[in-house]
Amino acid sequence: MPRADQERVTFQPMGRRADPQPGQSLLHLAQSAGVGIEAPCGGKGLCGKCRVRPEGAATPLTPAEKALLGSDAQEGLRLACQAALPQGGTVWVPPESRAQRQVILTSGPSGELELDPAVRAFELSVPPAQPPEPEAARERLQAALSQAAGNHLQAPPELPLGLLRALPGLLKQGGELQATLRHDREIVDLTPVGEGSPLGLAVDLGTTTVVAYLCDLNSGQLLAVSSEMNPQVPYGDDVISRMSLCAGDPQGLGRLSAAAVECVNALAMDACAQAGRDPGRILECVMVGNSAMHHIFLALEPASLAMAPYAPVVRGPVEVKARQAGLALSREAWLHWLPLKAGFVGADIVAVALAVGADQIEEPTLILDLGTNGEMVLAAGGRMLACSTAAGPALEGGHIGQGMRGAPGAVERASLELGAAKANLSVIGGEPAVGFCGSGLVSLISCLLNAGILLPGGGFDRERGKGLVRSGEHGLEFVAAPSGATGHGRDLVLTSKDVSEVQLAKAAIRAGAEVLMAEMGVERLERVLLAGAFGNYLDPGEAARIGLFPPVALERIQGVGNAAGVGAVMALLSDRQRRRAEKLARDMGYVELSGHNLFQELFVDSMPFPSDG
Amino acid sequence: MPRADQERVTFQPMGRRADPQPGQSLLHLAQSAGVGIEAPCGGKGLCGKCRVRPEGAATPLTPAEKALLGSDAQEGLRLACQAALPQGGTVWVPPESRAQRQVILTSGPSGELELDPAVRAFELSVPPAQPPEPEAARERLQAALSQAAGNHLQAPPELPLGLLRALPGLLKQGGELQATLRHDREIVDLTPVGEGSPLGLAVDLGTTTVVAYLCDLNSGQLLAVSSEMNPQVPYGDDVISRMSLCAGDPQGLGRLSAAAVECVNALAMDACAQAGRDPGRILECVMVGNSAMHHIFLALEPASLAMAPYAPVVRGPVEVKARQAGLALSREAWLHWLPLKAGFVGADIVAVALAVGADQIEEPTLILDLGTNGEMVLAAGGRMLACSTAAGPALEGGHIGQGMRGAPGAVERASLELGAAKANLSVIGGEPAVGFCGSGLVSLISCLLNAGILLPGGGFDRERGKGLVRSGEHGLEFVAAPSGATGHGRDLVLTSKDVSEVQLAKAAIRAGAEVLMAEMGVERLERVLLAGAFGNYLDPGEAARIGLFPPVALERIQGVGNAAGVGAVMALLSDRQRRRAEKLARDMGYVELSGHNLFQELFVDSMPFPSDG
What positions does the domain 2Fe-2S ferredoxin-type occupy (chains A, B) (predicted)? Predict the structure, then answer.
């Protein structure tokens, strides 16, 4: 029943309205109204990121808010996941709390890729039925197609019922038609001639970002790229909080799955709109993503991924009709998910390994995928060993007091002139800064180490940082920008706790890399490849400065862009690459770091920053 | 908008009500209200069978009614397909116009059938995931199943998405489960152990009657048989009128298809209810039927079947997921349609040939399937030749003045005592007679020939038939029962025109058989097998007396029951029999009789009845 206007809640500046339900938090109400509010902890009252300013008769402050809001509570700020406005009112959502479109790296694959796709289109001339023993339409089509395909088909290709039903109508317009054959086994499309090439969609379903690549499967050409924030983000920033939503709410898995599926459908529409093509011509789809994204997308219960011994529901490639997974592509299109390696080494890492050719790398090379989890592969002499570190989201700005994702207002680079009274900040979008994203954090810490303001142990040198380092609520903190120069009117600070978070993350990654080296008997790295959007934004020198990975020559650290997306496109364009990915996933070794003794030891040893500049 | 009660039409004695739409005939209105009225011509005003008695302001008599109703018009009878009651009223539907449940032959297959079904169930113990490299659930299931199946699987069996989603839940209750494997390629069912055998459904979709056989696929046992009149009958009695409905009405095919699909679903439910089983355990379905029933069931445009050169849309076996065809069986069950031979030699004939082992018959044998069409196969020395005659529906009581199907009130057998003043009639259900069904017609004509009342040329001998033969509206007619002894209060008569219809039908069948003999070089038949329900009701001596087929020793004429159903069950229970059916359909020859010179000649020669008794 619609409420009287004064009983509704209006979210500003969006102007969206919604009817509050009994017991419903402002966060859930905002989600129901399509208003994106940052909630990295999944609305559990743990992260303090969903700050809003309600006007009206709000419910009383909760203990979580008292702990997390500090003095901001006096200014009328509340946590959207804790507060409610049962009688209606207005909620102001400040910029830093808004789930925004991010700056996403979506450069497509470059260079020549192998073209040998799962589907092939043939133009056929199907002869009419001839007395005295007139052959049936399907059988005439099958014969014409076998001939066109070179008569090497083992059996007549299958024709799905939907296409069989369309066949008489198609043949009425003369016998000329285009048939698309998949794996020499099944006809997946029938159209009049001249309907254009079959299209393919490769999708990298990241925890944070979803990127779709639209390709012409006749020419192998990349036609368009479309990307969007993963719509699951409002339900929780990391895979753990999303998996716990699935465990705790019977509708959780269905809701998260539907959100991802709809996102891929929207990206397919958008990419086709960019390229002036019809999404109904997409005849093949390849997807990659980490194991949690894979399970949730396919609506597979992810509980086993989160519990020892961390076994997935399925590890090898999954092939299903795309429509069964909810995708609105061509009716008979197939969806191929690249294989996983293990519970925490997903299809995205397999795709990265495929893209960089890890199975053929000779010199010891560390391939680091710095997404929301820190997964890596050590490749040497054709062998591969993978692990996943619970690095946490610090390098993406998570668990950092004023951390944020790579959105407008985020500090992405910092420099510090000797003796200067303030840091020079480079901010995404050129706006006043409102927080740090991962590359900005690494950059700032790297500068502070070089300036001696930050000590290898992680403490601030108050003397060296005079005028910039001060005592804060939780110990010493570095003021990167005063309130007058920020977008939210508060000082932008890097706290000791923030530094500790970065130390924990980089120590986990470095220790993981050293475990892989020890297991494979590699003494020294010859090369580091940084994959993922973050890998590309990161300055190699700064990453080395904070000790993110074992020592390597600076010029041998290389960003490889969205390698997972490139791997997905390779598998879309070539069946041979798809089989190679499967073999690569099987051949790759895997080290489980939880409970690994050497890892624990190396982790502690890796906590300090390197002392040499 | 619901109408006032006085504006509605009430069908009696059913008591069903409906709102008449502008221009809607009483026949269509009755169909919309679920009232079955006989309309063998499909409501075209040609057959005069849909007589009803409307009370209210009916539309004026049409020319078709004036021609077909004769004096009945004065008694207030109308044709439901011509008349309407736009202002509402009551419609009385007399018994002979009601589409009734028929007496259907549904004896199941007897004897030992080969058991080697497409699906096999295995009880498995799936081991839990073990560190340090825990295997995924699907892969553990696949390994356990491969081992149980004897390790001869070429590739790990596929697991459909629906079952993959159910797998974690099933494994939570310990690793014991039952997996059903199809063709060693796909897992089609997963349940806890103890859920019972997989079930199979074989369906014979006849033009008039649909029969479903429920089998246990572990034991091969026939659990239940269920049958029903084909719900397409109210749309037209024969395949031609149903195909023309598909051609003339854009919704026609969808409506006819849905009616057949719903009928099979209802039969599956009923058979399972009889056997105390769950329709969700039906994991495999085999269907047979003539080419028109096959196309319409699968919603394939049947137009090409009705036009030279009579090519089907598909000839070989069709395998689709049962749910795609609309069947509500187990979610992953497959439907297998046996192959057709040609446009007018359908999967039912292939099934009959399989059931009687036509591919191994040595002595010249004519296999006659006397359904709504007259299809036949001549088998000799392992060779087979088939044809279809446009025999028309006379032998099923169609196109006969007082003809009807084998329903209560139908004369099924007649005898004539020498010099008696009336015929002795045996009536289905023991009720007063209201019409003739096929076997009754053959029986009466045979008696009349023996008594010399009917002459070989088809004319009545008025002298010999004194007191029983009289002049009627359309020439001479034989009074089989006077009005006082019938169920509808009118004389039951066999007219000269009725005799001509039977002559046309039997001449077509006999000429077809002689063409096959000539083509195969067979001089004399050694055996005749009569398949189909009609074949079983028919008296072999009477059939021979009217010259339905070339001469053969009386004791070598044999009814083989519902052989099409038996063939369907054989293909359900055995994959080898399914492949045999495919080979048989390929190897069988086919003669197209339309435009065949010898056929025309033989047809004319076969019109007279044999003169010898």
Answer: 11-84
